[in-house]
Write a structure and sequence with these properties.
Layout lengths: L2 E7 L4 H13 L3 E10 L2 E10 L2 E8 L3 E7 H13 L14 H23 L1 H11 L2 H22 L5 H34 L2 H21 L18
Antiparallel strand pairs: 1-5, 2-3, 3-4, 4-5
Helix pairs in contact: 1-2, 3-4, 3-5, 3-7, 4-6, 5-6, 6-7
Length: 237
């Protein structure tokens, strides 16, 4: 047997992903294992499948593309199935985020990213704004914002690719939101002044917020319309 790697198309091309999923299903392939991870700015999804021609591996990597790896005969059969139109059915099935969840996830991620960029790029402005808002009203507004983001994460978590992680983040933000008014104005001012004396920490915190925004959005992708084994859902975004 001769192994081969075939790049089917761009990893973000939903039509190609859906066609590939239908093609491998039609040839009798079933999932054996799956893996997902993020490295730097790249997201990698890998699914192992077994079928009549043995084992194949499908990998979607940012900037690299959607690649099928395995025995050359198996690759040829999958390519033929896609070219003949077997994999052209059911483009709408597979994975997508519902419109409401997509907007909600984008808003939550946007809040994280905006706050993170501000803290990393203009920490002095963030400190000045924080000092201005440290008051009973300001603390209440911050608590409402935290609770709102927490509730949004709990909503988005349902049906996402990582409901446990997003759920924990949502609960943590709710707890932080309820705790903020209880800790009071003095505690909030103490934290602001500490951050004012540790700008490097504030900048790093900003970078982490930006990263968190990206991860939240990617993890919140919802899977709907499945008609096959759950692991095959990773073949479509």
């Amino acid at each position: 047997m001769k192994d081969e790697a075939w790049t089917v198309g761009a990893e973000h091309d939903e039509t190609v992903r859906a066609r590939l999923r239908v093609a491998v299903e039609s040839l009798g392939y079933r999932p054996k294992g799956q893996w997902w991870g993020v490295g730097g700015s790249q997201e990698i999804t890998r699914v192992e499948l077994v079928g009549p021609a043995g084992q194949i591996e499908i990998e979607a990597e940012t900037y690299i593309g959607l690649t099928v790896k395995g025995d050359s005969n198996a690759i040829a059969a999958i390519r033929a199935a896609m070219e003949s139109g077997t994999g052209s059915q059911d483009h709408g099935a597979g994975l997508s985020m519902s419109t409401g969840s997509s907007y909600l996830a984008a808003i939550v991620a946007g809040v994280f990213i905006v706050l993170g960029v501000a803290a990393a790029a203009v920490p002095d402005t963030v400190i000045a704004a924080s000092r201005y808002w440290v008051s009973s009203v300001g603390i209440f507004a911050a608590a409402v914002l935290r609770c709102g983001i927490g509730i949004a994460l709990l909503i988005v978590a349902r049906g996402s690719r990582a409901p446990a992680i997003l759920g924990i983040m949502g609960v943590a933000l709710l707890v932080a939101g309820f705790a903020l008014p209880l800790l009071g104005v003095d505690n909030a001012m103490t934290r602001v002044e500490w951050e004012a004396g540790h700008m490097t920490f504030l900048r790093l915190e900003g970078v982490l917020f930006v990263w968190a925004g990206y991860v939240v959005y990617k993890l919140s992708e919802r899977r709907v319309g499945e008609r096959s084994t759950p692991s095959l859902r990773h073949l479509t975004p």
